[in-house]
Design brief:
Layout: H1 3-18, H2 24-38, H3 51-54, H4 68-78, H5 83-92, H6 103-120, E1 127-130, H7 136-151, H8 155-158, E2 163-167, H9 170-178, E3 180-182, H10 191-197, E4 198-204, E5 208-213, H11 215-218, E6 221-225, H12 235-240, E7 243-248, H13 257-269, E8 271-279, E9 293-297, E10 300-304, H14 349-353, H15 355-364, H16 368-381, H17 386-398, H18 402-416, H19 433-444
Parallel strand pairs: 1-2, 1-7, 2-6, 7-8
Antiparallel strand pairs: 3-5, 4-5, 8-10, 9-10
Helix pairs in contact: 1-4, 2-4, 2-5, 6-7, 6-18, 15-16, 16-17, 17-18, 18-19
The structure holds S-adenosylmethionine (SAM).
Length: 447
């Protein structure tokens, strides 16, 4: 039987189970693996010949004949969990990963997403690399998270954090768990990482030089088998909960567009409110994915799930001007060095409904818990607004959440760093960058 007759059926089976549409090289690898398997004897596939069938002409017993392509295909169809199917899968998957892959995305994680998550989420952020291959992406997330936490002085915020890596390939997951990598995995990686997070191993002529991820980092990551096209259902799925950041890079590029979109819908359902999804630059983008908003950083796109559906509150007729001296985190003045601004007319209805205004109003009334949700919304709406994160820091502080307060304040400080001192703040134009810097410095002494 020529491969022309069984190969399309094999490729269809593979696509149905994994989403993978194979291109030439991998189709050839799969074909080779299938031919080798088809040459194995039927006993290996559970075939039991009766004695009459095994009895050769000269009275000796013979081994069962090769299974052949037709029966092999049937066997694979009816035994989806068999290790022979798993072996074929390894020939089909496209491996390949390295640390710190795609610089603009790494910078967006470092500068925007991770500091914002550390500042906004109540516990350590939950991160998931879906389609993690041999684990480089997972360890990259663990390193980045640790570095952001150190920069923000927030190590307690990442203790007990864990990064999940999942893949379809048991072989890739086994490599990921071992955590040993050669020079090729380090291309484009910050130089300091190798000495900070790895120990050098004695190389051998086959592998070349190798480095092993330090045990303490390996303890912070978990790897699990997970098929994005046939995700586990029911209780198992529920148990896994929701994630603040999902990376699914260079996976859906091998899928048909409609399968890629179905995977995105599934991933979006696993995002926590305010959580982020990052795809590879060449992956098909999500189309009309309800509830996900596109965000960008220089050279990088990503998507965010709203914190909560933004509902406009009914307009109030008159809103009292906001007192600028905080009642909650006193004695630290909200605006320490400037005279109180004058409001000559009631604020517009737009002011009344902005999450920042609502948060401020509640904070000034002493209702810090009531202020938290609108301020987290405000931080979601503008993750680059220093004043918003400053105010969020005040709320966390008022709630006694010192680590979160510190993260939010330090993040606000890092956002402010690029502004000349006299720049008026976007969301509080009566304040300058310098005013806020001073207020931040004072507040930071408290945390
Ligand atoms: C090219 S690697 C990408 C690795 C990593 N995300 C990166 O960008 O460096 C693609 C990985 O996706 C995995 N994959 C393909 N189809 C999958 C599926 N249906 N479910 C889970 N993983 C899948 C493959 O096993 C492979 O390890």
């Amino acid at each position: 039987m020529s491969s022309a007759s069984w190969l399309p059926a094999l490729l269809r089976l593979l696509e149905r189970r994994t989403g993978l549409v194979l291109r030439e090289r991998n189709a050839t690898l799969l074909e080779g693996a299938f031919v080798r398997l088809a040459a194995e004897r039927g006993q290996g596939f559970g075939e039991v010949l009766d004695n009459a069938a095994r009895l050769g002409e000269n009275g000796t017993y013979r081994a069962s004949p090769p299974i052949g392509p037709v029966r092999l295909l049937e066997f694979l169809r009816t035994h989806p969990q068999d290790k022979k199917w798993a072996a074929l899968l390894e020939a089909a998957v496209v491996p390949g990963a390295h640390f710190y892959r795609v610089l603009p995305q790494m910078l967006a994680l470092q500068a925007n997403i991770l500091p914002e998550l550390l500042s906004r989420t109540a516990g350590p952020p939950r991160l998931w690399s879906a389609g993690c291959s041999s684990g480089e992406e997972v360890y990259t997330l663990a390193f980045l998270l640790e570095e952001c936490a150190v920069q923000l002085g927030l190590m307690t915020g990442v203790q007990n954090s864990s990064v999940l890596g999942t893949d379809l390939s048991p072989h890739a997951l086994a490599l990921a768990r071992v955590g040993r990598y050669g020079t090729w995995s380090f291309r484009g990686t910050p130089l300091a990482w190798q000495s900070r997070y790895f120990r050098a191993l004695e190389g051998n002529p086959i592998t070349g030089p190798q480095w092993e991820v330090l045990g303490q980092v390996r303890n912070q990551v978990k790897f699990e088998l997970y098929n994005l096209v046939e995700p586990p259902s029911g209780a198992l799925l529920e148990q896994k909960g929701q994630y603040d950041l999902i990376l699914c890079r260079n996976v859906t590029i091998y899928f048909r567009p409609e399968v890629a979109q179905a995977v995105y819908r599934h991933l979006a359902s696993r995002l926590s409110p305010g959580g982020y999804l990052m795809l590879g630059p060449s992956d098909p983008p999500p189309i009309a994915l309800e509830g996900l908003e596109q965000k960008s950083a220089p050279g990088a796109l990503y998507w965010q799930k709203p914190l909560k559906p933004l509902k406009l509150e009914p307009l109030k007729k008159v809103k009292p001007p906001l007192p600028l001296t905080p009642k909650v985190v006193s004695p630290i003045p909200f605006r320490p060095s400037l005279p109180q601004p004058e409001r000559t007319s009631p604020p517009s209805s737009k002011d009344v409904t902005s999450p920042l205004e609502r948060g401020l109003e509640r904070l000034e009334r002493g209702d810090a818990s009531g202020a938290l949700e609108p301020l987290r919304q405000a931080a979601y709406l503008d993750s680059q607004d220093a004043f918003v994160h400053f105010t969020l820091g005040r709320v966390w502080l008022a709630l006694g959440r010192v680590a979160q307060a510190r993260a939010a304040l330090l993040y606000a400080q890092s956002l402010l760093a690029v502004f000349p001192p006299e720049t008026p703040l976007n969301s509080a134009p009566e304040l300058t960058a310098l005013d806020l810097r001073h207020a931040l410095e004072r507040l930071l002494l408290k945390v």
